[in-house]
Amino acid sequence: MKLDQLANYQKLIKYGVAIASIMLVTACNSQPQQSALPLKTSTLPSLPTKIPFKSITLERTECYGHCPVYTVTVLANGKVSYDGRKYVKVTGKVQSTLNKAKIQLLEEAIAEANFFNFKDKYRTIEDGCGMVATDGASTETIIVIEGKKKSVDNYTGCEKVPIELTQLENKIDKIVNTVQWIGKKS
Predict the structure, then answer these.
(1) Largest Cα span, the chain
(2) Considering 2, 9, 19, 181, which has the largest number of Cβ atoms within 10 A of its Cβ?
(3) What is the pairing mode between strands 121-122 and 148-155?
(4) CA 107 from centroid of its chain's CA atoms
(5) Residue pLDDT, tens place only, 12-28
């Protein structure tokens, strides 16, 4: 680079830095202009924090092994029906009741999981499972709300099942306290 080109380049950098500094100071010290039109603030609709249900049914099926096989149904009034079939501590039918606080926990769990946006089944590669292992149990969760019934079939061999679905299934078990009938999980 020639000496006169270098001098011009240095001047350009010097003036460029000066102009950029002036612009920055001016922008920082200026007051925001008032708009002639009122600004609209947009808010996203809030998701429900709980979803009142008419009934919840959780059915766990047999696997190649000793998976607990049972069905538990919870009604909105707190009535619980359990039917243990295999590999459970209590076989047969049992009735129980949940208090309002536990019903509310179930309503919150349904909303948190966004249950009504799940696919109807997670069983095969076509369902989006990715890899599918064999000989696992399935869990079917059926929730009925006002005017709507949704059933989700979750095969435990499905690799890419949404974690929110399995968390909901486990929360239902925990809130209903199915361990008292099925025994400790191994």
Answers:
(1) 98
(2) 181
(3) parallel
(4) 14
(5) 444 444 444 444 334 44
